[in-house]
Every structure is written in C-alpha cells, then in structure tokens.
From TrEMBL, chain A:
Residues 6-130 form the NIF system FeS cluster assembly NifU N-terminal domain. One of its GO terms (molecular function) is iron ion binding. One of its GO terms (biological process) is iron-sulfur cluster assembly. Belongs to the NifU family. This is Nitrogen fixation protein NifU. Pfam families: NifU_N.
Automatic annotation (TrEMBL), chain B:
Keywords: Pyridoxal phosphate, Transferase. Residues 40-421 form the Aminotransferase class V domain. CDD domains: SufS_like. It comes from the Bacteria. Its EC number is 2.8.1.7. It catalyses: (sulfur carrier)-H + L-cysteine = (sulfur carrier)-SH + L-alanine. This is cysteine desulfurase. It comes from Klenkia brasiliensis. Belongs to the class-V pyridoxal-phosphate-dependent aminotransferase family. Csd subfamily. One of its GO terms (biological process) is cysteine metabolic process. Pfam families: Aminotran_5. Its cofactor is pyridoxal 5'-phosphate. PANTHER family: CYSTEINE DESULFURASE (PTHR43586), CYSTEINE DESULFURASE 1, CHLOROPLASTIC (PTHR43586:SF8). GO terms for molecular function: cysteine desulfurase activity; pyridoxal phosphate binding.
Length: 151, 442
C-alpha cells in the first residue's frame, strides 16, 4: 500500500518521539523558516565550534513529515563538520528529487541512514517541501554561523 | 486494513438536486485516482470541476467564431464581439446587474486589485473626475479578520502606498463576524469597507446589511467578495446594495482565467484605469491619452473571450439547476456532514457548527493528526480535500490551530461523498493509531 511507503515506521517513530527537540543555549545563529503554502514552521539554532556543528536545536510545528525530518536530521548532523552536514543535506535533496527511485535510495543509504526512509515522500511532490524545510533551515543557519558567533 | 464503516444514524433530508444526473455532466468525475480509487472531489472551494456544457461552449467558440472582439470589421470579428457581449449580458443577468457594470478580470484577486489600484491611481489622476475616490493619509480602509488573502493583502498594500490606515472587524469564538464595534471601526474617515459574503475557510455568511448600511451612512464604498457566495447561493446586486461585487469563474463551474468585477455604474465611471493599453482608450496621441467609459476602460488588451463564453455557459447551467436549489442542496449536505464529523471522537469543526447563515465549506481538525497527514490519508482513498491555512492565515491563527482540513461541497456532491469523507477520517485515526488514544482519554 502506497501510504505506508511514505509513512515508514521509522518516520512515525521520529514524529512521536523527536530527537533533540527544544531550543538550547548557547547558539551562533538562529533562523525561522516557514512553508508558506501550508503554514509549517521551524525555528532552528546551530552552535558551531571550529568547523564542527556541536548542537542543532529546534522548535517547530507541522505535519509528521516535516517534524520527523528535522528529528532525523538532528541525528545525522550533530557532531559532524559543517561541510559534511551540508553535503548530507545535498544527498537528502537528491533523495527528494528521486521520484521514489529505489536505486537512488540504495545509493544514498550509507550517507542518509534513517533519513533514507523519506524516499517514499519523493513520490508526492506536494510533500517534498515538508521534508526539506529543516534542511533548508540548517543550510541557512550554518551560513550565518559561518560569519562568526552571534554577539 | 479493512473495517466496516458504522452505519450513519443521522437523518438524510432529500437532496434538491439529482446528483446522479448532475454527475453525468462532469467527465472528470468518472476518473479514478491513486491506483483505481473513484474520485471523491471535495475541493470545489479551491476550484470547481467543469460540466461538459462549459467545455463545449469554449470549444464552440474556438471552432466556429474565434477572433479578437472589439477590433476589426470582418465577419468573425463581428461574431466574436457579439458572442462576447452576449456572454456579458448573461453573466450580468445571473447577478441581477447591467451588462455595462460587468468588467472581466482574470479572477476575483485581480478584480480586487483593480479597485485597490484605481483608488491609489486616483490620487495622481490628471482628470479631476477620477479623483473622487482617492485615498490618502487620514483615510481608513476596513476589512475583516475572516478575509481570504486576496481581500486583505491588496488593501494592506493600498494603505502602504497611500498612507491610509487599515482597520478590521474581528471574529467571535464561534466563527462569526464580530459587529460589536462596527460603528467605531467604520466611521467618517472610512473610504471603503470590504467583506466576504461567505468565508472560504469557516463557511460563515456574515450579515452584510448592517455593514453596508453603516458604510453608506458614513459615505464609504462597499465591496463584497463573492468568490465563495456567487457559486453557491442566489446573489442579486440590486438587493445587496453594495458598490462592488467580485467573483471568479473557475469556482462556479466556469473556466480558469476569467473573473468579474461588478461595479455600480456611477462608481465605475469615476474610477481611473488600473491596467492600460489597447482597447481601453478613447483617443491616443503621443502626448497623452483619454479613456473609454466602463467597462472597456478596465479591459485592456484582447480579453479572455473563450473563457467569458464558457462562464456564461456555467451561469446558464447553474440557472437551469436553480440557485435556490443549489443553496438548499449544500445546506442539507452541510447539516449532515457537521453531524457526522462531530460524531467522531477527536474531530473539532473550526467555524459555525450549525447551518444558520453558513455555507458548505467545513474546516476541521483531528486530535493527534496534523491536517496534512489527514489530507494524505484521505487522498490515498481518492478523496480530494484541501489542507493548510486556505489563504486565510489570520483565521487559523485566530483559532489557535496551525492549519485545518477543509471539505467543500457543490452541485455534484452527494451523501455518499460525505460518507466517504467520514470513513476516511476514521481511517486516518486508525492509521496513525490515535483512535484508541482518543477513546481512552474520554
């Protein structure tokens, strides 16, 4: 059944029990992103030490896909270098553009870990933005943090 | 995942429209979606489906008459002009107006922008007769908190361009317009009051008469947003008494790309143009131009002729059904749907929960499931609803929800569609495992 392709158990687990949720201090940059077509919102903070993302904290409201995506992203990027995190974000973008192609998902599994479960979302164009919102916020916040720690 | 729907116990009033006969006119309702599921279309509030009669009218125009109206003197140009103006007369008659008071626009949004830009263009118009409705500092424009973005953002922008002040009427907790401060919000400084005749998200039909009377008592113009009312209830501009009425063709069985601004003749005559160019002029010289009288003054460029003809066919189709019947049909469905949806534990209707002064747009939330996810499960069963803020972000904010799921009804909707929706919502609760949680919490 198609619906289960999108709502993988791993996605529903992240939705029900999000990892890393909550806004934390200290942080170097904070961004607020919205999905204007549906009203989903996320506020996301990053803490960078050297070139390492030492924390990503967030608050948001939105559908299961957007909320599970930010939780899975937290697991993937915290403790990694900013460059690695952004490269992972590029892989996630590739997954979202794959239109459900299993070969693409298989190829990206090592890089995306749990987040490869979002492959089913890529079959539903209207929901891709939900999955991407937190990754866009991370890219934005990292770029701002790169400019130097917040005052 | 198979479960039998509990048989509804809600009474079903006989429906005024013959649903099977109406459905036979809509080719798209015969298709399936998502691996063979029959389409249950409950998103007419976003855009309506089109009966064959409308599609045939557009095709007839292109195959037999196509030419640019109001230009040229060849046979086709004459016939195209005649067909275009005959369609204008049909559409005017549908709302009880005069043909020269009907201006064709792209949609309601453009019709509203036309008036908003005309009012700021009036400030700098070189013609003294076009300055009558100019707005500026010290003037006020009044909207309501219930408006679609299309009837809010253009007025915010008008105020930013001119220095005028935007004010608004608020909402009550039960989804109605709050008129308790009408006499202070609408006052001697008010230049224009604009209000929806039926909320696209709440379904509410606000009482327009006290607003129109108050606005006219202080010398303000009144615009009525009929995007969600003209398709669903009889509207007569003479009885209404407003100065402007806007509506969209695509929401009333007509084509996309055509909307209407109806304006009282003397008001339109005093407004400067919004878009300028060909066919809206009187005399053009290199130094400057003068403009045609309405409605041509507001119809620059070759118009959406085939779409106007399609819209006239839609008006004929609705007239044949009878707009009183359309209203009664949707009221019966709404009463049934409100009862059935609210019988589901965890479902909350956002908006009036009775059918008094209320149309067939039902927004709701399902405890523990985000509206997008509700919509996705419904979609998987072939049920098309809208999710999100429905271009009325202040409304969802007012009621403290991030978004809603919205079902809207029309002439082809039957009790079976509502039953599918209700069963779909129950299915979503089972899918996300919130059905038992909700029961246990009670």
């Amino acid at each position: 059944m198609k619906l289960q392709d999108m709502y993988q158990e791993i996605i529903l687990d992240h939705y029900r029990n999000p990892h890393g949720r909550g806004l934390r201090e200290p942080f170097d940059a904070e961004v607020h992103h919205v999905n204007p077509t549906c009203g989903d919102e996320v506020t996301l903070r990053v803490k960078v030490d050297g070139d390492t993302l030492t924390d990503v904290s967030y608050e948001g409201m939105g559908c299961s896909i957007s909320q599970a995506s930010v939780s899975a992203m937290y697991d993937l990027v915290v403790g990694r270098s900013v460059q690695d995190a952004l490269a992972t974000g590029d892989d996630f973008m590739k997954l979202m553009q794959a239109k459900g192609d299993q070969a693409v998902a298989d190829e990206l599994e090592d890089s995306l870990e749990d987040a490869v479960a979002f492959a089913g979302v890529s079959k539903y164009p209207a929901r891709i933005k939900c999955a991407l919102m937190s990754w866009m916020a991370l890219k934005d916040a990292s770029a701002r943090a790169w400019g130097g720690p917040a005052a | 995942m198979t479960a039998t729907a509990p048989r509804s116990t809600t009474e079903r009033a006989p429906l005024p429209l013959d649903v099977a006969a109406v459905r036979a006119d809509f080719p798209i309702l015969g298709r399936s979606v998502r691996d063979g599921k029959p389409l249950v279309y409950l998103d007419s509030g976003a855009t309506s489906q089109k009966p064959r009669q409308v599609l045939d009218a557009e095709r007839w125009f292109y195959e037999n008459v196509n030419a640019a109206p109001h230009r040229g003197a060849h046979a086709l140009a004459e016939e195209a002009t005649e067909a275009y103006e005959a369609a204008r007369a049909t559409i005017a008659s549908f709302i009880g107006g005069q043909p020269d008071e009907v201006v064709f626009t792209r949609n309601s949004t453009e019709a509203i922008n036309l008036v908003a830009y005309a009012m700021s263009n009036a400030v700098t118009a070189k013609e003294p007769e076009f300055r009558r409705y100019a707005v500026g500092q010290g003037d006020e424009v009044v909207v309501t908190e219930m408006e679609h973005h299309a009837n809010l953002v253009p007025w915010q922008q008008l105020c930013e361009r001119t220095g005028a002040t935007l004010r608004w009427l608020g909402l009550t907790d039960d989804g109605r317009l709050d008129l308790s401060d009408l006499d202070t919000v609408v006052n001697e400084r008010t230049k224009l009051v604009t209000v929806t005749q039926q909320s696209n998200i709440l379904g509410t039909m606000p009482p327009l008469q006290p607003i129109i009377e108050r606005a006219h008592a202080v010398g303000a113009l009144v615009m009525v947003d009929g995007a969600q009312s003209v398709p669903h209830q009889p509207v007569d501009v003479a009885a209404l008494g407003a100065d402007f009425l806007v509506f969209s063709g695509h929401k009333m069985l007509g084509p996309t790309g055509v909307g209407v601004l109806w304006g009282r003749a003397e008001v339109l005559a005093a407004l400067p143009p919004f878009l300028t160019g060909g066919s809206m002029i009187e005399v053009v010289r290199m130094e400057g131009s003068t403009f045609a009288p309405p409605p041509q003054r507001f119809e620059a460029g070759v118009p959406m002729t085939a779409q106007v003809i399609g819209l006239a066919a839609a008006c004929d189709y609705l007239t044949a059904l009878g707009m009183e019947n359309v209203l009664a049909h949707e009221e019966a469905l709404t009463e049934y749907a409100l009862a059935e949806l609210q019988a589901i534990p965890g479902v909350t209707v956002i908006g009036p929960v009775d059918t008094v002064a209320r149309g067939g747009a039902i927004s709701f939330t399902v405890e523990g499931i985000h509206p997008h996810d509700v919509g996705q499960v419904l979609d998987d069963q072939g049920i098309a609803v809208r999710v999100g803020h429905h271009c009325a972000w202040p409304v969802v904010r007012r009621y403290g929800v991030p978004a809603t799921t919205r079902a809207t009804f029309y002439v082809h909707t039957g009790y079976d569609d509502v039953d599918a929706l209700v069963e779909g919502v129950r299915h979503a609760q089972r899918f996300f495992g919130v059905d038992t949680q909700v029961e246990e919490a009670r």
